[in-house]
Amino acid sequence: MLFIFYFFLFFFISCSEKDINENNFNYIINNKESKRKLENDDLNYKDINILFDIRSILNDYDYFKRSRPNDAETKEMEYLINFLGTFNNTLKKLIKIKKSHQNEIRISDKAFIDLKNNIPAYENELLNEPFHNDLVIFVGVDINRETFESLEIIQYDNNDRDRPIVGIIKYNIQFGIRINDENKKYQLFNIFFLHEITHILGFTRTILKNNGFTIEEGKERNRVNTNQKNVISNKNLLTIAKNYFNCNEIDYIELDDNSGEGKELIHWEGRILLGDYMTSEIYYPEQVISEFTIAVLEELPWYKVNHYTGGLMKFGKNKGCNFLYKDCAEQKDETIIPKFSNEFCNSDSFGTCSIGRQSKGYCLLETSKNKVKTDYVRNDWSLDYGKENVEYCPVSSETLSNSDNQNYDGSCLFQNLKY
């Protein structure tokens, strides 16, 4: 629902710098394959049916409701239960799955052991229980955990090219408690669970390498300085990247530094694909399902994705090869000068657009106590940096309030109303 909403926003939003040239815009609108709806025109595919097994959460909620009915944890569990009760309908609008001959899923002994290690509440009777779904995800919660979340694929269908069929998501309930704005909370829950489910559907190192993607660790950057990167490549993915960035010199897409060898979960490099929901951080507003992630999912032998969710990302679009391979900004005296003003910013950039071009933003800067090691920000900077997940490049985040008294220049418009 959130992403369909973004589609309608697309036609009413503009920035002072024209982001889409006319030919590219016409291609996005008129190309049927680029904008394919999930219609029932292919009998080999059906609506995906995902079961969120929340029995563990229901047990915890029952205890908390009786013993601590007014606690924030109790209310947060209730919110999570209600959200997951409707989220499967959202997923059916986004993705279809190829029909298979498997009529049911039964939890294997090994998968059950993995499940018990993560969510101990389940009993042995689960081994005899049939699930008539395409994918079963067991969801549990942590009350006092430092990490944000964890997930794992614990069972594959050996008769369907090792398609993932059982997974686990552990959710840190303190994360939602800290969000007071209900609208932002709902949006973030959509992004968070879609992000985790995309990993379980196959956005992992092993599954992608087994399905035609090349993933390399420590790739030498041949157009910048000496740092090495983790990268991914595939013919269709590179075609999309060349068209999106308007750069024909691309021979790989960068992954973030935490997607190295031994890491099963991989993510896009935030410095170039910050607008996509499969970067390592999802705290940025207006992240969408981009054509990059659609391409990855559809290279797998099981899925079709609603292309109306692609084509909405604006971050870095048509910025050329320099956006990929040159510094994001430079320091002159005591001022950061962003090389691409709609993507990167400085402390004076209160009038910058947010990463999705849908609202005004402010520059997200952090004081770095140690010198950073990156190709895109010189390590002799004396000023504040951006966050690590965007290789310390300063980027925009949304303002806390539309009434903020900032030096906003009105360049981001929504139906002629200034944010």
Characterization of this structure:
- The protein is built from twelve helices and 19 strands.
- α3 packs antiparallel against α4 (72-94) and α9 runs antiparallel to α11 (291-299).
- The model is unreliable at 1-34, 400-410 and 413-419 (pLDDT under 50).
- The radius of gyration is 22 Å and the shape is globular.
- The strands form seven sheets. It has a four-stranded mixed β-sheet, with helices on both faces. Strands 1-18-19 form a three-stranded antiparallel β-sheet, with no helix packed on it. The chain has a three-stranded antiparallel β-sheet with strand order 2-4-13.
- With 419 residues, it is α+β, with helices and mostly antiparallel strands.
- β8 (149-157) and β9 (163-172) form a beta hairpin.
- It has helices at residues 2-10, 22-30, 55-67, 72-94, 109-118, 173-177, 182-201, 205-209, 235-245, 270-273, 291-299, 321-325, and strands at 13-14, 45-47, 50-53, 95-98, 105-106, 130-131, 135-142, 149-157, 163-172, 214-220, 228-233, 253-255, 303-305, 329-332, 335-338, 361-364, 395-398, 413-414, 417-418.
Described by strand count, sense and barrel closure, the largest sheet is: 4 strands, mixed
Sheet with most strands: strand arrangement:
3-7-9-8
- How far apart the termini lie comes to 23 Å
Helix content: 25-40%
Radius of gyration: 22 Å
Q: Unreliable stretches, pLDDT < 50, 5 or more residues?
A: 1-34, 400-410, 413-419
Q: Give the integer mean of the pLDDT values.
A: 78
Percent of residues in beta strands: 15-25%
The oligomeric state is single chain
- Helix tally equals 12
- What is the 3D form? globular
Given the helix and strand composition, which structural class is it?
A: alpha+beta
Task: Count the E strands.
Answer: 19
